[in-house]
Specification:
Blueprint: E1 12-15, H1 17-20, H2 27-39, E2 43-46, H3 49-59, E3 64-68, H4 73-85, E4 87-91, H5 108-115
Parallel strand pairs: 1-2, 3-4
Length: about 120
């Protein structure tokens, strides 16, 4: 995870159990995402995504949201709901963790093997 070139603003990573319900994600993937979020300088939150964004907006007004696209209907619906209150820019789906996002990884394990040492695995 990293902020794409040319993008400004504060990265935010939200751990939302409702959005991940029914979508099996291993503990290693959760740790990997958390590690990448910290490395990207993201503010990390846990809770309902819309509620978290509304809380952030009350403290610091949000002018726009930039995110990557998703094939999952829950996320597509979420992006649609964001569009009612915020300007939403949806980037093409690519691995935000790649150093060169024009050459995306084909397998998660390529990145896992690269970062697992830092996670003490």
């Amino acid at each position: 995870m990293r902020v794409p070139d040319g993008e400004e603003g504060q990265p935010v990573y939200i751990i939302d159990g409702e959005l991940n319900e029914g979508y099996e994600i291993s503990q290693k993937v959760h740790e990997y995402r958390y590690f990448l979020a910290k490395k990207a300088g993201a503010k990390i939150f846990q809770g309902n995504t819309l509620e978290v964004f509304n809380q952030i907006h009350q403290e610091t007004p949000i002018s726009s949201i930039t995110t990557k696209s998703s094939f999952r209907p829950l996320y597509q619906n979420l992006f649609h709901n964001f569009g009612k209150s915020y300007k939403v820019d949806i980037l093409d789906d690519y691995f935000l963790s790649t150093d060169n996002y024009l050459h995306p990884a084909k397998r998660f394990f390529q990145y896992w093997n690269k970062i697992k040492k830092n996670l003490k695995y």
